[in-house]
Amino acid sequence: ECYMAALNIRPNFPQSLNNLAVVLTSQGKAGEALALLQAAITASPGYAEAHNNLGVLQRDVGAISDALSSYERALSLAPDSRNAGQNRLLALNYIFPGEGAAVCTAHAAWGEGFQALHAAHMLPEVTPADRDVTPGRRLRVGYVSPDLFTHSVSYFAEAPLSRHSRSRVQLYVYSCVGKPDVKTVRLRQQVAANGGVWRDVGRLPEHQLAQLIRQDGIDILVELTGHTANNRLAVCAMRAAPVQVTWIGYPNSTGLDAVDYRLTDAICDPVDTKQTFTEELVRLPGCFLCYTPAPEAPPVAPLPAAANGFVTFGSFNNLAKITPQVLTLWGRILNR
């Protein structure tokens, strides 16, 4: 209502056009949002944020090539735009193979520039003399994520957050969740039951979060987001912990030299992969993640194919992921 009121006074006010478009995009009203973003860009061609948000809308409807063009236009206007830079990296994964040189180079280049931007906040190196080498002490492992609510990542994070050995690991969770829900409550309870420490840090600036993690004496920091929304990669760039790991939330490299390891498996990243990463790959045995179903999920229904005589294939997914290449592959599988 506020944005509409502003537009009633100034119909071509680019900030209001842009902000209202963001709201409509989140509501799935792509056509209305598109018209507003185009109007914002017409009114202010150099408005980098509007170009980025146009890219987000284009990505959401599956127009990835158009989205990449919008992100690149935003970056030409604002080279240090974090949103546009990371949105571009995410979009590259949808239409180019991971081992493509352009994809690998883009991630590494972004990481180099991002670390340079945060060099002033780099924390002092943790030297061997600074470390607690008490024999038999528990390892302090911290997890940082904005997705510890009803989000796909939370269904894979639940197992490690609730199953660490209490005798060997002191667990810390840095929750950056903007709007906690019942899943957040359950995860918090599971962490507490496992003797862990839960910190709600969503409002902390990244440099303060990095300092807090350092003060907590974390040995290994695991970030669960990569280049997806609301990540805290600047915490890693500032070297909050002596050992830093990326896991679960992103199918590619962070691009940061400050992130030491990436947890994966031999299926997602075969030993002979040509894809390059700034992190060292650690291939877990079997699968690199474990799904925990929702406790409120209903029982599995009878198999429809048993009555129909044929298999019905469905996909509940982000349109950006259903590319022509994916549709072609599904067709090949279904035709076998």
Structure description:
By secondary structure, the chain is of the alpha/beta class. It has a seven-stranded parallel beta sheet with strand order 3-2-1-4-5-6-7, covered by helices on one side. The protein is about 45% helix and about 10% strand. Helix 6 runs antiparallel to helix 7. It contains 13 helices and seven strands. It is globular, with a radius of gyration of 22 Å.
For the secondary structure, the number of strands is: 7
Q: pLDDT below 50 for ≥5 consecutive residues: which ranges?
A: none
Q: Give the termini distance in whole angstroms.
A: 53 Å
Overall radius of gyration:
22 Å
Topology:
Layout: H1 2-9, H2 14-26, H3 30-43, H4 48-60, H5 64-77, H6 82-95, H7 101-117, E1 139-145, H8 152-163, E2 169-175, H9 182-193, E3 197-200, H10 206-215, E4 220-223, H11 233-237, E5 243-246, E6 261-264, E7 280-283, H12 304-308, H13 324-334
Parallel strand pairs: 1-2, 1-4, 2-3, 4-5, 5-6, 6-7
Helix pairs in contact: 1-2, 2-3, 2-4, 3-4, 4-5, 4-6, 5-6, 6-7, 8-9
